[in-house]
Amino acid sequence: MPGPGSAQRWTAAAGRWGCRLLALLLLVPGPGGASEITFELPDNAKQCFYEDITQGTKCTLEFQVITGGHYDVDCRLEDPDGNVLYKEMKKQYDSFTFTASKNGTYKFCFSNEFSTFTHKTVYFDFQVGEDPPLFPSENRVSALTQMESACVSIHEALKSVIDYQTHFRLREAQGRSRAEDLNTRVAYWSVGEALILLVVSIGQVFLLKSFFSDKRTTTTRVGS
Fold first, then answer.
1. In 10 A of CB 58, how many CB atoms?
2. 142 falls in which pLDDT band (50, 70, 90)?
3. Rounded to an integer, what distance in angstroms lies between the CA atom of residue 23 and that of residue 155?
4. Do residues 163 and 125 lie in contact, with contact meaning Cβ atoms separated by under 8 Å?
5. Residue 138, class by beta-carbon neighbours within 10 Å (0-12 exposed, 13-18 middle, 19+ buried)?
6. Which residues are paired to 86 by β-bridges?
């Protein structure tokens, strides 16, 4: 028959495994009001997105150009009546927070119409509303337990980790794009230098050959 010590050890082990299981469940993304999209924006093109928002909802639009040209794009945000809430020209990245003043469909567009040759890769994150609490407060007669408080802290920490990971992935993608572009330019420059060197070498060979070539003169006798 197990003693009190065994029961305490089993209780502690169950608590640790329960917290670990809940932490793993927190890693699984649940239903929320955030939309993260990375898309290609061709040259002379414009791409718009639409979102239905209720009045009083706090929203945040964050975007960044990952690849293409000077890494800039035009952005415009409008309310259901067509009023401009946000407008920026040739921005590499930015963030804008607003509270919806009315119900309806809000529109935000990204434009690359000023670019003639280069297409862009754009990332944006549009957050609508706040995340629901991990442990709803309604129908609760007691405060959060120590395990629930620890899980809430883990949940907030994981959200920060996800934001940092997204930020560094975007930086990594942008850096890789710059490195590939620089490598292409260096390759073209090397090929051009090789061609110029070949042409100069051939020209020098023919020039030196002309210095040592025999110039034969023809003598004509004129009879009396």
1. 13
2. low
3. 7
4. no
5. exposed
6. 77
Lowest mean pLDDT among 23-37, 109-123, 146-160, 167-181: 23-37
Element (H, E) at 38: strand 34-41
Tens digits of residue pLDDT in 75-93: 999 999 999 999 999 998 8
Query: Considering the chain, what percentage of its residues have pLDDT values greater than 90?
Result: 35
* Rounded Cα distance, 174 and 201, in Å: 41
Cα separation, 68 vs 46, whole angstroms:
15
Please count the residues of the chain: 224
Contacts of the segment 77-86: beta carbons below 8 A, 24+ positions apart: 77/106, 77/107, 77/108, 78/106, 78/107, 78/108, 79/104, 79/106, 80/104, 80/105, 80/106, 86/61
- Joined tokens for residue 87: 């407008």
Half-sphere exposure of 124 toward its Cβ, with a 13 Å CA cutoff? 27
Whole-prediction pTM: 0.62
- Can you tell me the distance from the alpha carbon of 188 to that of 143, in angstroms, rounded to the nearest whole number? 67
Q: pLDDT value at position 74?
A: 93
Q: What angle do helix axes 146-212 and 4-27 make, rounded to 10 degrees?
A: 50
| Nearest C-alpha neighbor of 132 from the set 21, 49, 32 | 32
Phi, psi of 17 (to 5 degrees): -70, -35
- When pLDDT is averaged across residues 58-65 and rounded to a whole number, the result is 91
Contact at 8 Å (CB) between 78 and 84?
yes
